[in-house]
Amino acid sequence: MKLNEKIAIVTGGGAGIGRQAAIRFAKEGAKVTVADVNSQSGEETVSLIVESGGEAIFVKTDVKNSNQVKELINTTTNTFGGLHILVNNAGISNSEVRSVDLSEEEWDHVIDINLKGVFLGIKYAVPELKKSGGGAIINTASLLGLKGKKYQSAYNASKAGVVLLTQNAALEYGKYNIRVNAIAPGVIDTKIIDAWKQDERRWPFISRANALGRIGSPDEVANAIFFLASDEASFITGATLSVDGGGLTF
Ligand SMILES: NC(=O)c1ccc[n+]([C@@H]2O[C@H](COP(=O)([O-])OP(=O)(O)OC[C@H]3O[C@@H](n4cnc5c(N)ncnc54)[C@H](O)[C@@H]3O)[C@@H](O)[C@H]2O)c1
Question: Which domains does the chain have, with CATH numbers?
């Protein structure tokens, strides 16, 4: 087990990529706080972990709310005695419309969750990671943080912001032995792509738009998150690891 004695938080841990990352961390020996705005699905992730012999708690958290993020960190350190790993994974997509048709409210909402949420996670976790003598932060960016796509203005901008915020934090906190990396998933089989799946005209293209010609599974992304969280990635920081079946090259 490669995360024995480690204490980890996974935001957006109630579903999809975050759920699989939380389960993987627990299998590798970590104590995990599952944070999600959705209590039911977050508690389900905790049950899945506990039923297979792992240790986890759920803390209801909206990542755009600084008081809730502070509470998430406090509850984790009070319950488990510290913090070593933070996965800033919670995220949402935007309505598929041109930017001229996207409301200002929706723009703010997407940026608040996808980008400010990552900032708040870093801001309030770093002091605890320093106390632990170092640690790892993994931010979930996106292939759409590395290349533009029509009708994705807020999502594109938020995820590109995550890539540079990752480099910024890697530079600021490397001296405390805190590594900060991002992952950039391509099309992964989770709820967030439901609208694309139902689009009979575009789905055949979207689902094969990479070198491997298929979509990815949340497990395949969780493997990359686990790698970046583990000591196997001890000299990797400031990186954005594409987990996209070659989507960036396509
Ligand atoms: N699935 C993909 O194709 C894909 C591709 C690239 C990047 N991503 C990114 O991966 C991350 C995880 O998404 P997913 O695909 O697993 O989708 P998902 O919808 O299955 O899971 C997202 C989780 O985040 C939670 N969440 C949403 N808003 C929140 C908030 N304000 N505070 C706390 N939790 C919140 C949801 O309740 C849900 O449990 C997101 O950041 C997403 O942008 C996904």
Answer: 7-245 (3.40.50.720)
Residue type present at position 72: L
Tell me the CA–centroid distance for residue 27 and ligand 1, in Å.
Answer: 21
Mean pLDDT of 76-91: 98
- pLDDT tens-place string over residues 185-201: 999 999 999 999 999 99
Pocket lined around ligand 1, Cβ cut-off 6 Å = 11-12, 14-18, 36-38, 41, 61-64, 89-92, 113, 140, 142, 185, 187-188, 190-193
Report the candidate in 109, 106, 104 with the shortest Cα–Cα distance to residue 65.
Answer: 109
Q: How many CB atoms lie within 10 A of CB 122?
A: 23
Q: What pLDDT is recorded for position 54?
A: 98
Q: Which two three-digit tokens encode residue 119?
A: 């900032």
Residue 122 alpha carbon to ligand 1 centre in Å: 18
Active site residue 151: no
